[in-house]
Structure formats: structure tokens, C-alpha cells
Write a structure and sequence with these properties.
433 residues; mainly alpha; 16 helices
């Protein structure tokens, strides 16, 4: 809500959703998606977007029925109570946010390092990854309000640059590079769609504004669907222009900074620099927004009794312990894992979480006045997409599956250990009344 106390309207809510989605994701995963799907990259972004659109229905109905700043955490607690399974899912959400932060930091470091001589890029990438995360953590302590106000301008700038990229690049498009004959096989396309699913994750931020929205029953559905629909179209066009202007092999070679490289054929060095600056600005702002949200997520989970109470403590109105733990974990993941494993972890984590949110809406369909079958379809789509991602990953890079298993084990271990330590009862549950 704005400082005057007025409720926010449709366009403001749409901007929040678009800003949440078009963060660092498209800059980070575009090259990876082309590597997996080749000429079918636009199709992959469309498929991932459809899963997001179906899940947006559950978020819409739950946001209208249970407006809360808690968003996903509040919806799961409302549907299933504050039990072991819900607590584990909420911890998984926090871990997934850390993975998202790592993806943004990795992209920030990769795009920044691409401006240095090739021999020193690896060193500069890790320097910039760490410097970006630490700098934003410091800014969160100093003046987060000013940064928050700047976010709206940053969103406008990066959307404008991406639309400019699409508008100019469309004139030089080589459609043969997008033909069906240039596509990977169906399994790779489906897996590629799901590994980039995290590029759509940010629409859930709309749920956190539900209590401050004017005419929520009318505004929230329109805002959710408009934001997701616009981003689907934007991503499909960006992917088409990228593949249509640059040979797949060159995109794969520059996959960590593919969007900047794709601008070079039709915009020259100016375009390369423009997209690089947009990527740096976008990923840095995404680190800020996600770090801010992840620290407060740990605070919300702690208030629900699913994490130690120390995470409820605040200093200068900031949840300090949650912020520092999130920062430390982000530095480790971003510096120790590669882009493919980070993307796999992030997408898999959010597919599981969104399956749970769809299931929550199935359980609460009467209260949310929902068409239960849509959210049942959402559960099936999310779990089916996860299965396809895991199957493909087992074939191509089985070590990444073990990393995902490690995420799930860690989430369960943290929640179960805390419950045994605090309550002495692993299966203590607090059901909704």
C-alpha cells in the first residue's frame, strides 16, 4: 500500500507481478533453454508459461479468499494446518528462494565478467557474484525504502530494453532457425521447458499484496492473468528473436550471457553493451527484491512456529538472522554450483511448491469458490512437469538429481529436527479451525 494509505489498483498489481517474473531469470536461463531445446526455445517458454497460468488460477482464488502478506506460506497453513509436511514445504520454499538468489547472482557475475578479457572471466565472475550479494545485503540494512521505490523504474527500464530488443531483432529474423526440423526431441523440449520454469516464479508476489488491493475480487484475477499472459508473450518473442538471429552453437557457447550476445548481430557493440547493462541492472534489482522477500519469509515461517524464534528478531526493522543466513547460503550455492544445476534445483523446487498450492486450492475449493478440476489439473501439470525434468536430468546429468534430493532432505531435516527439539513431538499439528 502506498504511503498515503490508499489501496493499490490494477496497474500497480500488474507491475508487481511482471517485475517479479522479469527479474534475472530470462537473462540467466535463455542460453540454457536454447542448449536443451535448440530451435524450439519459444515453444519451451510457452509450455512453461501455461503451467504458470494454470497455477495462477489457484493463487487468484486463494488470494481473494484469504488475503495475507504471508502469501504461499499462509495458503498452505490454511489448507493443511501447521504440520510437519506443511512446515517442510515452507522450508523448501525458503531454500528455493535461496536458489533463485543464486541464479540471479550467477547471472550478474556472468554478464559482468563477459566485459573482461576471456582469460580472467572465471575469476571476475566469482568476484562479481560475491560482491553483488554482499553489496545488496548491506543496502538492505541501510535504506531499503529508497531501493524499493527505485524498483518500479528498474522494471520499466528492463521491460523497455527487452521490447526494443524484440522490435529491432524481428526485422532480421531467420525463420529457418525456428523451423520444426531445428527442434530437439520432445523429451528434451519438455525438460527444457521445465528447467526454465523458474523464470515465471515471481507472479506469486501478487499474493503478498492481496490485503492492500482495491476491489480484490475484480482486480486480482485480472492482474494475475494479465501479468502472466504478458510475460509469456514477452519470453516467447525474446526467445524467437534470439534463436532467429544467432546460430545455436554461438548461443550455447555464450549461454551464461546469451541475450547480450544475441543482440550483437543486429545492434552491434551498442546492443551488446545495452543488454549487458540491462542484465546487470535487472539481476541486481532481482537480488535485492528476492533477498528482501526471502529474509521476511524466514521471519513469517518462524512466527508460524516452523523455524526457531531467533529468526523473529529484528534490528532496525530488519529480520537480521534470516537475512544473514540467506546471504551466506546464497554465496555458497552461487559460487559452488553451475548454471544448469542451479536452474534444475530452482525449477524443481517451485514445481513442487506450486503443486502444493494447487492442492491447497483443491482442498479449499468450497471456501475459495473455485472450479476444483482446474487446480487438480494444476497439480497434475506441476507433478508431470517435475517428473519429465527429473527423467531427463537422470539421463543427462544424474548428479543434479542428487542435489535436488539433498534440497528435499535438508528441508525435512531442518523442520523435523526443530519440531523434536522444541516440542518433543515430530507430528505435532495445528489445523485450521
Amino acid at each position: 500500500m502506498d504511503p498515503s494509505g490508499k489501496k493499490i489498483g490494477y496497474w500497480s498489481v500488474v507491475a508487481i507481478g511482471i517485475g517479479g517474473m522479469v527479474g534475472g531469470g530470462i537473462f540467466a536461463v535463455l542460453g540454457l533453454s536454447v542448449q536443451m531445446t535448440r530451435g524450439a526455445a519459444p515453444v519451451a517458454f510457452m509450455a512453461a508459461g501455461l503451467v504458470a497460468m494454470v497455477t495462477a488460477y489457484a493463487y487468484t482464488r486463494l488470494s481473494v479468499a484469504f488475503p495475507s502478506q504471508g502469501g504461499t506460506v499462509a495458503f498452505l497453513d490454511q489448507a493443511f494446518g501447521s504440520g510437519l509436511l506443511t512446515g517442510t514445504t515452507n522450508i523448501l520454499l525458503w531454500i528455493s528462494y535461496i536458489v533463485m538468489l543464486s541464479l540471479y547472482a550467477f547471472a550478474f557475475g556472468s554478464y559482468g565478467a563477459a566485459m573482461f578479457p576471456e582469460a580472467s572471466r572465471l575469476v571476475w565472475k566469482h568476484v562479481l557474484i560475491s560482491a553483488g550479494v554482499i553489496a545488496v545485503t548491506g543496502l538492505n540494512f541501510l535504506n531499503v525504502e529508497t531501493i524499493g521505490r527505485a524498483e518500479e523504474w528498474i522494471v520499466a527500464v528492463k521491460i523497455t530494453i527487452l521490447l526494443f530488443f524484440v522490435a529491432v531483432g524481428a526485422w532480421t529474423l531467420n525463420t529457418s532457425r525456428l523451423a520444426v526440423g531445428s527442434w530437439s526431441d520432445a523429451a528434451a523440449i519438455l525438460a527444457g521447458a521445465m528447467i526454465i520454469f523458474l523464470a515465471y516464479e515471481g507472479f506469486e508476489l501478487i499474493a503478498n499484496t492481496a490485503g492492500d488491493v482495491r476491489e480484490p475480487e475484480r482486480t486480482l484475477p485480472r492482474a494475475y492473468y494479465s501479468a502472466v499472459g504478458f510475460v509469456i508473450l514477452l519470453y516467447v518473442l525474446v526467445a524467437a528473436v534470439t534463436v532467429g538471429n544467432l546460430p545455436v552453437q554461438r548461443i550455447v557457447e555464450a549461454k551464461d550471457y546469451a541475450l547480450a550476445e544475441a543482440a550483437r548481430p543486429f545492434l552491434g557493440s551498442f546492443g551488446y553493451l545495452l543488454i549487458t547493462l540491462a542484465a546487470l541492472l535487472s539481476t541486481l534489482s532481482a537480488i535485492n527484491a528476492t533477498l528482501y522477500g526471502a529474509a521476511r519469509l524466514s521471519y513469517t515461517i518462524a512466527k508460524d512456529g516452523e523455524l526457531p524464534a531467533i529468526l523473529e528478531h529484528k534490528l532496525w526493522n530488519h529480520p537480521v538472522e534470516g537475512l544473514l543466513i540467506t546471504t551466506g547460503a546464497t554465496l555458497l550455492v552461487a559460487n559452488l554450483f553451475d548454471l544448469s544445476s542451479i536452474s534444475t534445483m530452482g525449477s524443481a523446487g517451485f514445481l513442487l511448491i506450486f503443486a502444493a498450492v494447487n492442492a491447497a486450492n483443491v482442498r479449499l475449493a468450497r471456501e475459495t469458490r473455485s472450479r476444483r478440476w482446474i487446480s487438480i489439473l494444476g497439480v497434475m501439470l506441476c507433478l508431470g512437469a517435475l517428473a519429465s525434468l527429473i527423467y531427463y536430468t537422470i539421463q543427462q546429468a544424474p548428479i543434479h538429481v542428487w542435489v535436488l534430493v539433498g534440497m528435499l532432505v535438508l528441508a525435512f531435516a531442518v523442520e523435523s529436527t526443530y519440531r523434536l527439539w522444541r516440542r518433543g513431538d515430530l507430528f505435532f499439528d495445528r489445523f485450521r479451525s
